[in-house]
Every structure is written in C-alpha cells, then in structure tokens.
Design brief:
- The complex is a heterodimer of chains A (264) and B (363).
- Chain A is built from 12 helices and no strands.
- Chain A is mainly α.
- Chain A has one domain: MetI-like (MetI-like fold, Orthogonal Bundle), CATH 1.10.3720.10.
- Chain B is an alpha+beta fold and 363 residues long.
- Chain B has 2 domains: 231 residues, Rossmann fold (3-Layer(aba) Sandwich); 114 residues, Nucleic acid-binding proteins (OB fold (Dihydrolipoamide Acetyltransferase, E2P), Beta Barrel).
- In chain B, the strands form 4 sheets. Chain B has a 6-stranded mixed beta sheet with strand order 6-7-8-3-9-10, with helices on both faces. In chain B, strands 13-12-11-14-20 form a 5-stranded antiparallel beta sheet.
- In chain B, helix 3 crosses helix 4, helix 3 packs parallel to helix 5 and helix 4 packs across helix 5.
- Chain B is elongated.
- The two termini of chain B are 40 Å apart.
- The chains are: A mainly alpha (264), B alpha+beta (363).
C-alpha cells in the first residue's frame, strides 16, 4: 500500500467531496421541516418522509421501478452471458456486427430511443404494457452487462475448462461448476450496474410509461415540474439509502473490488 | 501389443500441417517424452491424445480401443496443464475430488481416495486451502493429484515444470518420476527442455516441424543423434563439415578444410560430403603439441562442476568441456592439444547449410 503525499491527499479529498456533497445536501434537506428547499434550517423533522407514504402513487411507482429493474437486469444477464461467451471465444460470421449491435444502445441518446420505442409500442399495440417496458429497459442495460462480462471472459484460461472436461464433466456441468463460478464477479457486477441504470432511467421511460407503469424517476420528474418541496429530497434520500445498503451488503458478502475490479 | 498407439496422425490447419504422419506406440507403464522446440507439433499431438484437437487423419488406439473421435470427457485420461488449470473457486480437496464426482465414485470412497492422492504429492495438510494460497510448486502438485486420483490409464503432462524456478524444477522432476513409478501410470510428457526429458523418461520422441525424427532411449539419442538437427538441439555439440578423402576396411579419413581427421569407416565412400559431430565432453585437452589437433584457449566459462572452453584451432572454434577436478583451469591464450577417440565421432551425411557458430550452440 502506498501512502498519498499531502497534495495528492488534498486532491483526492476534493474529488470525493465534489462527488458526495450534492448527495449530502439532498439528504440533509430531506430532514428539514420547511415548506421549501432551504438550508440552513430551523430543526429536524420527518414530515416529508411521512408525506411520501401518504402519496400512494409514489409507493406504487417505487414498486414499479423495483420490479422493472430486477427483471430487466436479470434478463439482460441471462441474455448477455451466452452472447458474451460466443463473441469472446468463437470466430464466426457476423461476430463484429453482433458485438456492435449489443453495445449500440450506449451511443444512441435515450431521447431518441424513447421516441422510437413510443412509435414501436403504438405499432404493436403495446402502449402501457409492463412487459414491453421491461424489454425496452433490457435494451439499454445490456451493453453494461456485456462490457463487464467480456472483460471477465477475456482473461479466462480455457485450460481450466479443458481440465474439467478431461475429468469427465459434461459441457453443461463444466459451465455450471467451472465457467459460471469463474466469471461470477463479471456477472454480479454487470447485474448490479444494470439494476442501478434501469432503476435510474428517466429520459426514455418518460415516453413509454403509462399511468399504471410510471416509474419512480418519472413520477419524481412529473411531481417536480409542478412543485419543488423537500418531499423530492426525501424520496431521493430513500433511494440513496436503499442503494447504499445494497452496495454495502454486496461488499460484505462478496467484496466490491472483486466485482468491479475483477480480482480473485 | 502396445497400450497407447498413434498411427499416421496428421493435423492440418488449412494448408499448414501442424503434425504430419506421427506414429508412436507407448507400452503400459512407460514414461515417454515428446521433445522439440516450440512449434514442432508436440503440444498438438498431446492435445489429440487428450481429445481437445481432432486429428485430420490417422488413428489413436488406447488399450486396443479406437478413441480417435471419442470426446475428451469420455477418455478418462489424466492431464496436467502448463498453467496448472486448477479451479480457483474450489479448495484443494474439492479440486482433487471433482474428477471422482464426475466419475460417479460412491461418496464414501471419495474422501479416502482424495486423501491418498494428496498424501502422494505431500499436500495432505493443505486440503482446505484455495489455489491462490499455494506456491507454484504446490499448485503443480495439486494438478498432479487431481489428474491421478481418477486412476487414468494414461497421464498426459503438458510442459508440467516450465513455470517453476530452476531449483524446484529439478526437485519436481525426480518427484514426478517417483510418483509415476509408484502409481505405474503410462505417461506422455511434452517438453522443450532436454534435461527434463532425458532425466525422467524411458524413451524420448524428438519432434521437428510436425514430424518425429527419432524415438529412442535418452542416452541413445544423446550419443547417436540421427539427424544434425537433433545433435544440435540435444546438448551442445561441435559440427564440422568435410569431405571423405580415403576409405579402408576399418577407418575413413575426412578432410575438414584441408585438415585430415580419421574416423570409423561406416558405409562411407570416397568423395562423400559429411558433417562430423563431436560432443564437447568427448574432446580431451592435452599438452601443447600432443593430440590430434593443435589449439589455443580462446575463452573459458566456469559451470560449477565443469569448465567449458572455446578452443581456437585449424577447424575454427571448438567447444570442449572438462570436469572440474579441483586443479587450476587453463588460462586464455594458453596453447593446448585436442584429442579424441575415433569411435565418439558421429557422422551425418550432407553438409550444413551454414557452419554453425559455436558460441550460438552453447545455449
């Protein structure tokens, strides 16, 4: 472990401060009793958290977002694992095309995707369908999963799989007992990033959610266009809290550096 | 009848033949090494025995059964990979147990068999560790235990010692041989290291550009290399191009750039172009003016148990090795005589493409 010099230490502290300060401010504002966003404040209050739970549409949107993120992240992983294995390991016609196709949603603005999806949903008569919303989210989160998986598979020593074959394992067993556990950091990391991206997505979702499928970011956006009060901060604080707990849990159970850096 | 048989095995990639017409029989319990420089096809040959690469033509038979097109996971062979290829997410015990599980060995039998295998490689105390917590040598042993625990008919070793440091490599060589003797498994090892191949094999198969050029016992390959390539690849050697000048019943005289040298006759006739091959340790250094050729010490290298001399003389620079008997070595510039017994000179027909620089042969 190398120690930071004083200048590096100051620089790193400033970067961390710059990244965390807005989050800290939002969380602080959530606990104010005022009717408007204001700091400094007179005291502490939980009234805005209470207000959130008195808005059933917010609670409904929270569950929508949670299910949407769980489903789209999981399905994206199921889709990306075989795709990443094929693209990384085999030479075949259309390999480059397939790779580009999977990554292309990264470079298409979500606004454009939103308009396109809106049109598509209208064409197939799927407006307002939760299933199609999940499909749209799979499109935008798959590139992240692909990137992490390709990174995990690229450094993979194939002879480990050959060793398992030679000991009598079937192809399915080799995948389940050897390949999958060895790329698990990539799988978990990809799932986590996909989950966060889906849970967070606003721009595209504005176009393709219906009143019954409104996600939390869209609900917040709609609310914020009408009134800005500390309830927004309270919702944000809840999201920050949930994310932090999830990440901490993952770190405890698995080790974040293993997932995001890919160490064994 | 031999136990493992390769018959006219060829593997082509497009127009390129990685392996051409390899025919080899290995007896039960034998330790055979495939020796050659990188790219000579030895690893491809091993992979075809293992079932990871399918031969373009030819047959592989194991104990009389044709396994040429059998799947790798139905052959039941034990393989030790150069990278060890341990399962990083499993403990040493689980690594070794994996094969038993795949072979559907009854649960009660697994533990004693894993323990027996770990005992054999002296790792009984490490069963609960993960591969990342082991040293290179220990990982190597786990890989070996994992391969032999399934009691394979044939053990395949792919450059098993090349990732170990020199000292450990030597110790593991003897241990590998010892373990192989104990379990009696027929073994095929691939290596580019001739010392490794020679010290532990019953027979060595020398390969060159996808073909087998010689199969023999290690000392026979060293003493009677069949091609000039082998005499250069295996150990150090002095190669001297010349022309046969005179032949009688017992001896022939070869002119090496005007210097006449007498050798055992063989089937040579006058006018043949030949290359003589003399191992450095077969050259004796005598006092100046004695011996067959005069020379002068150009350079000397201390190898611990031996001295390696480069001797300038009428034939160019020759290498000579003498045991370090404790007496003072010759100084550079000192005049010497070179002597040898005619029977130690090997003769290859034909001339070298270019006369080799002995300093390049020294490595």
């Amino acid at each position: 472990m190398t120690r930071n010099g004083p200048i590096a230490l100051i620089f790193h502290s400033l970067v961390v401060l710059f990244m965390l300060a807005p989050l800290a401010i939002v969380c602080l504002v959530a606990f104010t009793p005022e009717n408007t966003l204001s700091l400094p404040t007179r005291g502490l209050s939980l009234r805005w958290f209470e207000a959130v739970f008195r808005h059933p549409d917010f609670v409904q949107s929270f569950w929508n977002s949670l299910w949407l993120a769980l489903l789209s992240a999981t399905l994206a992983v199921v889709l990306a694992v075989p795709a990443a294995l094929a693209i990384t390991r085999w030479e075949f016609r259309g390999r480059g095309f397939l790779n580009a196709l999977f990554l292309s949603p990264l470079i298409i603005p979500h606004l454009v995707l939103g308009v396109a999806m809106l049109r598509l949903f209208a064409l197939v008569g799927a407006t307002g369908s939760f299933g199609w919303l999940v499909a749209a989210h799979i499109v935008i989160v798959t590139p992240y999963v692909m990137r992490l998986l390709i990174a995990a598979i690229t450094g993979f020593d194939r002879s480990v799989e050959q060793a398992a074959y030679s000991l009598g394992a079937s192809e399915a067993t080799v995948f389940r007992r050897v390949t999958l556990p060895m790329i698990l950091p990539g799988v978990t990391g990809g799932w986590l990033i996909a989950f966060i991206n889906s849970f967070d997505e606003l721009t595209m979702s504005i176009f393709i959610t219906s009143p019954s499928t409104v996600t939390l970011p869209v609900r917040m956006y709609m609310y914020a266009t009408e009134s800005i009060d500390p309830m927004m901060a309270a919702v944000s604080a809840i999201i920050v809290g949930i994310t932090a707990v999830a990440v901490l849990l993952l770190d405890r159970v698995y080790g974040l550096d293993r997932i995001l850096v890919g160490q064994h | 009848m031999s136990f493992l048989e390769l018959q006219d095995i060829t593997k082509s990639y497009g127009t390129l033949n990685a392996v051409s017409d390899v025919t080899l029989s290995v007896e039960k319990g034998e330790f055979v090494s495939l020796l050659g420089p990188s790219g000579c096809g030895k690893t491809t040959t091993l992979q075809m025995i293992a079932g990871f690469v399918e031969p373009t033509s030819g047959t592989i038979r194991l104990d009389g059964r044709d396994i040429t097109h059998a799947k790798a996971n139905s052959r039941g062979l034990g393989i030790v990979f150069q990278s060890y290829a341990l399962f990083p997410h499993m403990t040493v015990f689980d690594n070794v147990c994996f094969g038993l599980e795949m072979q559907r060995v009854p649960k009660g039998e697994r533990r004693p068999r894993v323990e027996e295998a770990l005992e054999l490689v002296h790792l009984a105390a490490y069963a609960g560790r993960y591969p990342r917590e082991l040293s290179g040598g220990q990982r190597q042993r786990v890989a070996l235990a994992r391969a032999i625990v399934i009691r394979p008919p044939v053990l395949l070793l792919d450059e098993p010692l090349s990732n170990l440091d020199a000292k450990l490599r030597e110790a593991m060589q003897f241990e590998l041989r010892d373990i192989q003797r104990k379990v009696g498994t027929t073994t095929v090892m691939v290596t580019h290291d001739q010392a490794e191949a020679f010290s532990i094999s019953d027979r060595v198969v020398v390969m060159e550009s996808g073909r087998i050029t010689q199969i023999d016992q290690p000392y026979r390959i060293y003493e009677h290399p069949e091609t000039e390539f082998i005499s250069r690849f295996v150990g150090k050697t002095n190669l001297l191009p010349g022309t046969v000048q005179a032949v009688n019943d017992r001896a022939a005289t070869v002119s090496l750039g005007g210097v006449p040298v007498e050798i055992d006759a063989g089937a040579l006739v006058r006018g043949d172009t030949v290359t003589l091959c003399i191992r450095p340790e077969k050259l004796r250094l005598t006092g100046s003016g004695l011996g067959r050729l005069p020379g002068r010490v150009a350079e000397r290298y201390f190898l611990g148990s031996q001295w390696l001399y480069h001797i300038d003389g009428p034939l160019g620079t020759l290498m000579a090795v003498t045991p370090n008997d404790g007496s003072a070595p010759l100084d550079t510039g000192e005049p010497v005589g070179l002597d040898w017994t005619p029977s130690v000179v090997r003769v290859h027909r034909g001339r070298l493409a270019e006369a080799p620089d002995p300093t390049l042969e020294a490595h």
